[in-house]
Design a protein that fits this description.
Strands 1, 2, 3, 4, 5, 6 and 11 form a 7-stranded mixed beta sheet that branches. A 4-stranded antiparallel beta sheet has the order 8-9-7-10, sandwiched between helices. The two termini are about 20 Å apart. The relative contact order is 0.20. It is built from 10 helices and 11 strands. With about 300 residues, it is an alpha+beta fold. Helix 1 crosses helix 2, helix 2 packs across helix 3 and helix 6 runs antiparallel to helix 7. A hairpin with an 8-residue loop joins strand 1 and strand 2. The protein has 2 domains: about 160 residues, Ribosomal Protein S5, domain 2 (2-Layer Sandwich); about 120 residues, GHMP kinase, C-terminal domain (Alpha-Beta Plaits, 2-Layer Sandwich), CATH 3.30.70.
Amino acid sequence: MIKDECLYLKVPGSTSNLGPGFDSIGLAINRYLHVKIEPSTEWSFHYIDFDDRFPSGKDNMIYQTIEEIERKYGKGKEPRPFAVTMTSELPLERGLGSSAAAIVAAVEIANYAMELGLTLEEKVQIATVFEGHADNVAASLYGGLVIAAGQEGLDTISHKVMDLEMVALIPNHKLKTTDSRSVLPNMLPYEEAVEASSIANLFIGAALQNNWKLAGKLMARDLFHQPYRKHLVPDLEQVHEFAISHGGYGAALSGAGPTLIVFAPSGSSEYLQQSLAKRFPIYQCEVLHPTSTGIEVTVGAYENQSI
């Protein structure tokens, strides 16, 4: 790549866990973080139409991630400075992979700035170190449905999803991942862990066969995290029952929440979106689609004129 050209990143957001697939299953969605990287004399970060304010210099989280990648993986290479401009379709702290998308962008910028030549799986492993779990970052990198551990020597499984649409019920309030994780137990009793694993294993098999009717039933049977978080998202059970009664497959907490995701057959999401909006008016209900394409990297001209 020619370093005096602009680099553009289109990073898909994601929903993760999908019920019983805690910290290991993610699904890329058609909502994106858009990033423009321009050669500069110093690092700077610019956010367009973000609700929150973020540092514009080296105290920015993305730069600090790049700096840490330089220290751990740079092999003596120093990243050239860039001006980074971002706009996002992902609401912050709502469980739709906004932080994972930002970390994936940081890994890609570091890879470009230091010419590290990272493979896709190496990017997953590095991003997992910063995110803490592999599901969202792997989905943003690979696209599609992913099953990931983010550990060296264990490749990510990526699967193209069929006959699936979604409706996201996005509340006005945020929920920090740290707060949502703080209610989880430190350990599960052996018998409960075995039962939880059997549900998760069956769910994975159903998802890989695109048997979303069975997968939807299993979403409500998760034992790993949703039972402990239900007081943070009290509408989950009602949304799940409503979705099934209106032709959906089921519903799950999106990541750490507070967004709820309804899963539905292809062609039914518009009807479900309208029905859910009437029944649960406190949420912003949006139709989402899976995307089988992970991060897209473009040098030079780019279709997104907002950045």
